[in-house]
Structures are given as structure tokens and as C-alpha cells.
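$ run holo --ligand "iron/sulfur cluster" --emit C-alpha cells
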Amino acid sequence: MSEENLTLAEVHEVADPMRVIQEKLRACMQCGTCTGSCANSFAMDYTPRQLWRMVQLGLTDELFNSKTFSLCSSCYYCTLRCPRGLPLTETIHALKQLAVAKGIAEKKGARFYQTFLDTVRRYGRVREMELMARYFMIMKSPMLPLSFTPLGMRLMIKGKVSPEMPKFFGPGKMDAIFRKVKELEASS
Ligand code: SF4
Ligand code: SF4
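-- output --
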């Protein structure tokens, strides 16, 4: 299959996935509609519009170390409103996969994504308090919770974080689906 026909879910199969992602975002005209539509952009270090510009310029270090990935809630609002019809949410997913698969992301990024997936596996959705509690335990860094405190406070004030307390035990509601995906991946 030629690279231009690849979907963003398939970019990790080619030698230079960033080139394919750059091509998908080539038509971005930096209008900022995506940033204006993103409910989480106030907390991001780079807004969605800035993220696409970094992709276009190939600034991978800044890109993969940005907090923007972890703050994207995959609501698809930016994708729906982009006047150029660009696949923005899928691009974030592809960048996340790339960061983990290639080890480009710093370790804490990969650990954050894994913790995110673990909470989705357990509940079928993210429970923010548990996500962060698990992440802090894995990272074993006493200063890390402090660095997230201002962001956590802002999210709580805006009602973006559920106050549900963590429950660390019990089977995952999505275990069967995750197991099936692993089987399919192993047999493909
Ligand atoms: S809305 Fe679309 S064209 Fe506008 S900045 Fe965002 S990605 Fe680029
Ligand atoms: S999909 Fe992510 S980046 Fe796009 S509007 Fe939603 S939270 Fe923001």
C-alpha cells in the first residue's frame, strides 16, 4: 500500500511514520479553530494548533515531551470543527502510539499512557483520581505530585476531574476485550 493511502492507525508500519503524519497535516493553515474548540487547551503546554505546527516543522523533541497528549480526552471536537477536515484526534492517537512504540517519549510519558490504559481496562473509562494515584506510585518520585498540584487544582475548579476516590482492587470490566485484542495482535 502506498504511504498516502495509509490510515493514521497504520503509520507505525512504515519506516518513517513522522513523514506520513506530516503529510496528513500539510493542509493545516494555523487558523486556531481546533484550539478554540478544545475544552482542555487551557491546561496544555502547547495548544492543538501549536502541536500541528510542531509536527509540520518536525520538532519531535518538543512534541513528544509535551503534556498535550496526556490532556487530550479524545472528544473529537477539534476534528469536527477543523475547516480543512483534518484527522486531528487520530493524529494525536498516532503520535501517542509512535512515542511509546519507538521509545521516543520520555519514560514517564510511556508510563502515563500505560496507567491510562490500565484504568480504562478496569472501568471502561478514565477515573482521574485513580489514574494519577497509580501514576504517582509507579513513578516513585515524591516531588511529582507537587508538580501536578496547580494543574489538578485548576481542573477541579473547572469540574473537569471527578472526585471519585481510587479503588485499587477488583477485576477489570474490560478484561475480556483487552485479552481478545492481545490474542488478535499475537495472531496477526
Ligand atoms: S482547525 Fe484545522 S486548519 Fe485550523 S489550525 Fe486547527 S488543524 Fe489547522
Ligand atoms: S480531541 Fe483532544 S485535542 Fe481535540 S478538542 Fe478534544 S481534547 Fe482537544
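-- notes --
The mean pLDDT is 81.
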